[in-house]
Amino acid sequence: MDLILWRHAEADEAGPAGEGGESSDDLERALTHKGERQAERMAGWLRRQLASTTRVLVSPARRAQQTADKLERKFKTVAAIAPGGSVEALLQAARWPDSREPVLVVGHQPTLGMAVAYLLSGATTPWALRKGAVVWLRGREREGELQVVLHAALTPDMV
Asked: What are the DSSP calls for the chain, one per residue?
């Protein structure tokens, strides 16, 4: 199975945090002009690479929705991959490693970086992913064991 993790592109800064610790407008943060360009560049590369059967799952946050819109494909909004979501929820939504089709997830840090770390090393260390970056992982079975291979890791300025 291919699991492609795409961090949303650069967005406006969050407003001041409320009593709960999160900004009340966090889900409404929009892409900046730079973020629009980052998302367009990466979407162009992804359009050339992705299989037509790829399922696209997107956080409900505005910045993730705007990033995914640049791909010009249908996508499903999944609350489980909203900011603050868990690695387990992300992998469950993607049906890792059993999905028959490739899955692209457009989401957030630190969850995406922790998912990459977990799949490649077994530990949910908070690995950093740049805004707009894509990490493409491939799960395959070898001698009865799941192997996870890093297929690609790109930032928008590389495409």
From this structure: -EEEEEE---BPPP--B-TTSSBTTGGGPPB-HHHHHHHHHHHHHHHHHS-TT-EEEE-SSHHHHHHHHTT-S--EE-GGGSTT--HHHHHHHHTTTT-SS-EEEEE-TTHHHHHHHHHHHSS-------TT-EEEEEEEEETTEEEEEEEEEE-GGG-
